[in-house]
Design goal:
single chain; mainly alpha; 2 domains; 12 helices; about 70% helix; elongated
Length: about 260
Amino acid sequence: MDAQKLKFMMSIQQEIDKLQTEFGADSSVVIELKSQFDVLSQAEINRPNTTETNNLDLLPIKADTEAIRKHLEIRANVSIDYDFVKNDRVKKQLIKDNLRMENIRLNVTKDELTRFYEFCINAFYQLEELLNYYYFLKFQDNSNGLYDFLINNNTNYKILNNDDETIKSKKEKKQKELKEKSLSFITVADKITAFSFGFFDIKTGNYSGSTMNSLRLLRNEDLHRCSVIEKNRDEKLNKFLFYKNYDAIRYAIQNTAQVIKTNY
């Protein structure tokens, strides 16, 4: 086997090793890749040594390599069940963002921080879409219900029940937001807070509010800034970026989707 072929095959092996580290030796994708690579390797080992290599000799290798490369470009499956979403546009957008998120998770050609950052951004898109969907369905024609929901579950709106003159301007601002009957006046942060305290219970372990808020904060940062945060323990998002807990992020989306499915 000449040096060029050996180098190329080693690069394929390295990609397979990355996938095995990421998903385990029992992964069906890893097993399939190993099988194909073993066939390719044995063919080369058993090939008689020659001083010349022509294009015909390379054709079988090229065919097997292309098959492996197709597997390396993994296309993930949808990880969240969005069948409960009645609005077709919203459902399609949620599925699109979910597939993009999961494909990023499997893309071993990118470094870990880039993958995690892009995974989080697409996770946040789904959470934001889900929250907007819920608030719209639940409160589009029910401003009084929205008023009660926010007051009961978001400290920023509790001032509406306060007659203190020193907070009069803040109170009037919040009152205007509700009177507009437009959910666009309510910030994503306030929607997350009210939804989290309204439906998640930290005592039972199903509280996803902190993960949702971290995703919101991360959405406001660029990738370079995240690399700085990851190395600085004093930064607010340091632990979130350091541990890179993909499962917690996926659970936050699943948890939110389940709450909406159950409550509307």
